[in-house]
Amino acid sequence: MLGNQIQGGLGTSGALSHAYVQHPPLRCDIPDTQGLFYDDANKFLIAPTADRILYWKTILPTPSGPPNSDPVNEGPVLSVRYSLDHKVIGIQRSRHEIEFRNRETGETCSKKCRADSETVLGFFWTDCPTCDVILVKTSGLDLLAYEPQPHAFHLVESKKFNVSWYLYTHESRLILLASGMQCTMFTGYQFSAGGIVKIPKFEMMMSKSEANNKPVLAADDVYIVTVYGRIYCLQLDRVSMSLNLYRFYRDAVVQQCTLPTYSSRIAVSAVDNIIMVHQIDAKVVMLYDVSLDSYAPVSAPLPLLLRGLPINSRQVSQTADSQSSAYGGTIYGEGWNFLIPDLICDAENGLLWKLHLDLAAIAASSSDAPSILEFLQRRKSDPSMVKTLCLAIVRTIILERRSVPTVAKAMDVVLDSYTRLMKMGGAFPGVRRIHEQNQQSGSQPIDGSHVVSQESSPGTTVSPAVNPDHGSEAVDIYVQSNPGVEHTIDRGLLNINISSDSVDNTSDAVDKRQQAVGEASRPLSSGTMTQHGQHAGTVAISPIEMFQSVFTLVEDEMMGDPAYLIAVIIEFLRSVSKAGLKAPHNLYVMTATLLARSNRYAEIALFVSNKILEPCKELAMQLMELGLQHPPTRKLGMDMLRERGLHHDYVTAMLQDGYYLEALRYARKYKVITVQPALFLEKALAKNSAHNLAAVLSFFCEFTPSFKATSDFVRYRHILSEMV
Amino acid sequence: MGLSSAATGDGVQLCVFDLQRGQQEGQELDKILYFYPADCPILLQLSVIGLCEGIVTFTRIFSPEEDCEVIESEKHSHVFYQAETDIWMVLVVEKNKENELTWRCGALQGILKEAHSLFAMFHGPIRTLLHKQPSAELARGHLRTFLTDYLSDFNVGKKLQFPTYRDSLKERGTVQMLTVSREVALDVQSLATVLGSCLGNVTCQSLVLFEDLLVSTTLPPDDTLNLYTYAVLRLTPRALYSNASSWSYLRKGTSVSAGQTSSSSNGTTAGERPLLREKLSKGKDGFVAADFTATEARCAVPSTPILWFQQADECMHLCIYQHKSLTILLLVPASSVINGEEGITHVKKAMLENASQKIVTVEQKLTRGWGGENAYHVSGYRYLLVDPERRVSRASPPGKVTTLAKDSLLALNMLRQEVDLEKSRYKRGDPCHDKDFEVCIRTKNNAWVIAKISQGRELYMALEKGGETLLYASTAVEKFSNRYCEGAFSTD
Question: Domain named Regulator of MON1-CCZ1 complex N-terminal: which ranges (chain A) (predicted)?
Answer without folding.
Answer: 36-149
